[in-house]
Design brief:
By secondary structure, this protein is an alpha/beta fold. Helix content is about 45%, strand content about 15%.
């Protein structure tokens, strides 16, 4: 479909998800008093989801893109200042999380086969880390195995269910080991949970087994692996999360953090996940491979 049709479809989906959330007795209204915003929340969320899908990861980039290139799609945007748009988008972080959870009920995936991994999220260039005042006391130094370099920031820990749907997400400082985040990621899960060699932990696997979670990973050291064939099989299945991680890095620019505080960092992380899940949903709806995002919009 073309970009306009995709944008309209996202807007309709967002409005449906908002309406579905509103009937939940446990859902709290976004605003309890005051005038309604010039831009409807559904419009802001749609611009964020579509903007992220197109690679516009900064609030100002999303704002300028729709105001400059598609003023007819959201006419009220012309009467809204950039800072107002940015604040409204950040204030909707809980709504984004709620919509993502509701949307997961509509996406097809296997809840009994999931994969865990993490994506490095630097908050500044390494050379500026000592002088960086952002996220002081929260961010830390860590190692990026992909680029084989040290970075300063966080890790975005993901659990992805087959065939590539993000169902759990936790942010932690870069020096927190992947294994430490597994109990949070698999909370409420059941079935097989696959990881790379970094997740080899027989003690943790035994602790999770009574809850119905089977944590499986190849032996810690490849050269000493007692069952290399099993390691190769696990590696082939586990590679699906590498595809998802590469989409977050390349299309959604997950390694570029423009946020200056945890509030905005959380909001932007959630909108990337929401946008990714929306794209998977429409790929399935149109009979495409779930991660064939390049074929979704002409």
């Amino acid at each position: 479909m073309d970009l306009e049709s995709f944008t309209i479809a996202v807007l309709c989906l967002v409005e449906d998800l908002l309406a579905e959330s509103a009937v939940d007795p446990g859902w709290r209204r976004v605003r309890k008093r005051g005038p309604a915003p010039v831009l409807a929340d559904s419009e802001v969320l749609t611009m964020e989801v579509v903007g992220e899908f197109l690679g516009h990861d900064r609030d100002i980039a999303i704002y300028r893109y729709f105001r400059r290139d598609h003023p007819d799609w959201f006419p009220a945007l012309g009467r809204v200042h950039r800072t107002t748009f940015t604040r409204q988008a950040a204030n909707l972080w809980a709504v984004k999380e709620r919509l993502w959870r509701v949307l997961l009920d509509r996406v097809l995936y296997d809840p009994r086969l999931s994969i865990v991994d993490s994506v490095p999220v630097p908050v500044c260039r390494f050379g500026r880390a000592r002088a960086c005042s952002r996220f002081k006391g929260e961010a830390a130094y860590g190692h990026d195995a992909g680029s084989k370099a040290t970075f300063y920031g966080f890790r975005d820990h993901l659990r992805v269910c087959w065939p590539g749907v993000v169902v759990a997400q936790q942010m932690a400082a870069a020096n927190v080991h992947d294994l430490a985040m597994v109990p949070e990621l698999v909370e409420g899960a059941a079935g097989q949970v696959l990881g790379d060699r970094n997740y080899w932990a027989p003690t943790l696997a035994a602790a999770l087994a009574p809850a119905g979670v089977a944590l499986e990973a190849p032996f810690k050291r490849r050269a000493a692996d007692p069952d290399p064939e099993r390691g190769r099989v696990l590696g082939r299945v586990r590679w699906r999360i590498e595809t998802v991680a590469s989409q977050f890095v390349e299309r959604y620019h997950r390694k570029r953090t423009w946020a200056r505080d945890t509030w905005r960092l959380t909001s932007r992380a959630l909108r990337k996940t929401l946008s990714h899940t929306v794209a998977v949903f429409f790929c399935q709806l149109h009979g495409l491979s779930p991660l064939a995002f390049d074929q979704l919009v002409d």
